[in-house]
Amino acid sequence: HHFAGYSNRFWKLLWEAQLVAERITYLDDDRLAEWGYGITNLVPRPSPGIDDLRPAEYADGWTALERKIRRFRPGIVAFVGVTLYRAIQPLLAGENGAGRARIPALAVGRRPETIHGARVFVLPNPSGRNANFSYLEMLGAFKGLRREVLKAEREGR
Q: How many CB atoms lie within 10 A of CB 125?
């Protein structure tokens, strides 16, 4: 299950940001489609932390994720974790015609890239070990995603 750690606040943030219509937990991760969401891991193996992932795993995961994005055509792709986004951002440069721009250390929110037409949004990692963001800052970012989702819906995306 996704975000199943006892200190992970992902599911609480989804609810409090009004991205889902009822309180759910990691046991309900397969229900996200009811609200029009999908969820996947870039690196499909358990790890104690992001520092345990190898660059080749990001590249392989990106290849699989890009195929999913091309197939399902979401309006928005949200990356959970600034470190994750920073790791794959250079891989996005080819599609967007951009160079390897320096990413601000705590860059959350709407990003300039697109992936097969999908907007890119970055959320802070909701792990209890993430000391870079307070809970209120995380909630603000999740609410920002909700605003972006509503905007995409109004535009028919």
A: 22
Length of the chain: 157
Q: What is the pTM of this model?
A: 0.87
Locus of tokens 């889902």: 20
Structure-block tokens of residue 90: 């250079």
What distance lies between CA 51 and its chain's CA centroid? 18
B/e letters for 80-101, b = 16+ CB within 10 Å, e = fewer, are: bbbebbbbbbbbbeeeeeeeee
Handedness of CA 9, 10, 16, 22 (dihedral sign): negative
- Taking the chain (157 residues) in runs of 10, the rounded mean pLDDT of each run is 86 97 94 93 76 81 92 94 86 60 70 92 90 93 97 87
Provide the pairing of β-strand 118-123 with 76-80: parallel
